[in-house]
Amino acid sequence: MRKYLFLAYPVGLYVIFSLPVLFLSASLKAVFGIDHLLTHALGAMGIALSHITVKRKKMTDVPALPWKQILSYAGIMLIPVVILTLSLTGKAFFKAVTGTFPAIVLGTFFWASLSEELLFREFLICRMQKNGMPRWIILLLPALLFSLCHRPESVSLLGQRFITGVVLGFLFLKTKDLSLCTATHWVYNVIIYTFHCTFQEVSILYSPARAALNVLLCLLSVLGIVVAYSINKSKFAGYT
User: Fold this and answer.
1) N or C: which end of the chain has fewer CB within 10 A?
2) Closest of 89, 79, 49 to residue 65, by C-alpha
3) Contacts for 95 with CB less than 8 Å, ≥ 6 apart
4) Element holding 140 (H helix, E strand)
5) How far is CA 69 from CA 49, 74, 191, 233, in A?
6) 19, 20, 9, 2: which is closest to 142 by C-alpha?
7) Is the pLDDT of residue 35 over 60?
8) What percent of the chain has a predicted confidence (pLDDT) above 70?
9) Which pLDDT score is estimated for 240?
10) pLDDT for 160-172, tens place per residue?
11) Is the torsion defined by CA of 51, 227, 194, 70 positive or negative?
12) DSSP conformation letters of 162-209
């Protein structure tokens, strides 16, 4: 039983940093009206830095954290996303987004994606493989823990995040590339958040179908880049 205690580590770390942030977030929202996503960056940053400086530092089988590659891959993925979003949503985008949008996109979503990929993909998957666990469990269990730690408000959200976790887990198993998984996760969050922020305005100025088309094309563009990378990693890496 003790050999499987490592499974509780990501959840424990998530709880330690997330609970205080939930109370802080609720307080700041009630008193000052500060967007709760801004304060969530503190929890995600705490999780990531705590893991990097303590647990990951002792993991001799992982390379140095690829900060530059994460930023490079995310930048490449964002090029078509920005072009598509500005082309399809136009005035609605600038009308809908608020002043906190850049801070949430660059701060909260970066640290959230990094912390979750470090814990639920790199740490869990590598440890589970070392313990000789079946491949299907290695793929599904981290995805389930990933989904549960997001405190899903409904079964549909639980399922959505579980599928996202499975896809990211599959990507990590195939590439063993933390930077690609983190960048993909980061840009995915940006796309979904932008969709939620702009949906009402896009629907009013254009149509709901146009908002849905934008998010679909953005996701397909990211998928295309990930597939291209996976097919020929060496050539893709030359651009970063």
Assistant:
1) N
2) 49
3) 201, 205
4) helix 135-148
5) 18, 8, 20, 13
6) 9
7) yes
8) 96
9) 47
10) 999 999 999 999 9
11) positive
12) HHHHHHHHHHHHHH--HHHHHHHHHHHHHHHHHHHHHHHHHHHHT-HH
